[in-house]
Design goal:
Elements (H helix, E strand, L loop, with lengths): L2 E5 L7 E2 L15 E7 L2 E7 H10 L4 E4 L5 H5 L10 E4 L4 E4 L2 E2 L1 H14 L3 H11 L5 E7 L3 E6 L6 H12 L3 E6 L2 E6 L4 H12 L3 E5 L6 H6 L2 E4 L4 H4 L7 E3 L5 H15 L8
Parallel strand pairs: 1-5, 1-13, 13-14, 14-15
Antiparallel strand pairs: 2-4, 3-4, 6-7, 7-8, 9-10, 10-12, 11-12
Length: 274
């Protein structure tokens, strides 16, 4: 039976130049492959070794990119290996099948959101009213499903983020701070629900997952085995779970380690074996 590998992308498998964490001497830095170009500029990378491992993974597992990115943001990523048959965008709001949105899945998500949490307009209005223009650079709505702010991180008051989290919690929403972005996402909008649907369709009996942020916690908990890097929201709070391995690596080398672990587990090899 197939193995399903569901992985977050940004700061899990792929890394911007600011997130690479190349702490070794320059001469010992890994060779990098650019996997995303935006506005004619290179934006995201993985190591060449990770790229080869990801290509190999396609022969042993159903690989499912699982991201909070919008469909448009996801589609500018050019991962090595064959195009994935399934991809999950907008934190589970869109399930792509051969690159096309599954309309029935999207409709079921919209119905769940209408039933279980406060409307998006209420959240957007609160963000506009409470966020200070001194440290907010952009207000954005993603796929008419959730909202996020782009902020000046060094000016962002920590107390404001905590207050927003409490406000959102009472309305069925979750707040996640990732780099320069603050996400407000409906609680029913989850990566794990979409991954379970892909597992059902593919007949997978084993699900492997990786992620670095609060929005990945449900994905990791739903998997049979999971990994998180040594950076990100989950690492910062020492988040862990019985079936989740906290890796020591940070930055782009964590991405390489994660793909190596995926490949080893999908081949049925114990940890410590190549």
């Amino acid at each position: 039976m197939p193995v399903l590998v569901a992985s977050d992308l940004d700061r899990t498998l792929i890394y911007s130049s600011a997130a690479l964490a190349l702490t070794m001497p320059d001469a010992r830095a890994p060779r990098l492959l650019c996997v995303e170009v935006h506005e004619s500029k290179p934006l995201s990378y993985m190591t060449e070794t990770a790229a080869q491992l990801l290509t190999d993974l396609g022969d042993t597992a159903v690989f499912v990119p699982t991201t909070t990115r919008t469909r448009k943001q996801y589609q500018r990523i050019n991962l090595p290996g064959p195009p994935p048959a399934y991809a999950i965008c907008a934190n589970g709001g869109h399930l792509l099948v051969d690159g096309v949105t599954d309309a029935d899945w999207h409709a079921s998500v919209l119905a769940r959101l209408a039933d279980e949490c406060a409307p998006l307009d209420e959240v957007c209005e609160h963000l506009l009213r409470s966020a200070d223009p001194v440290w907010v650079r952009k207000h954005r709505v993603a796929e008419d499903l959730f909202a996020y702010l782009v902020v000046e991180r060094e000016l962002l008051p920590e107390e404001w983020v905590k207050e927003l989290a409490v406000w959102a919690e009472n309305r069925g929403w979750t707040v996640s701070l990732q780099g320069r972005k603050i996400y407000a996402v409906p609680k029913p909008l989850t990566k794990s629900a979409a991954v379970r649907e892909v597992a059902r369709r593919s007949g997978a009996e084993l699900t492997l997952a990786a992620g670095d942020s609060l929005l990945d916690a449900d994905l990791l908990l739903a998997a049979d085995r999971g990994w998180r890097p040594g950076h990100g929201e989950l690492a910062d709070t020492d988040w862990t779970a019985p079936a989740v391995t906290a890796l020591p690596e940070r930055g782009v080398l964590a991405g390489e380690r994660i793909v190596r672990e995926f490949l080893r587990a999908s081949r049925g090899r114990p940890e410590g074996r190549p």
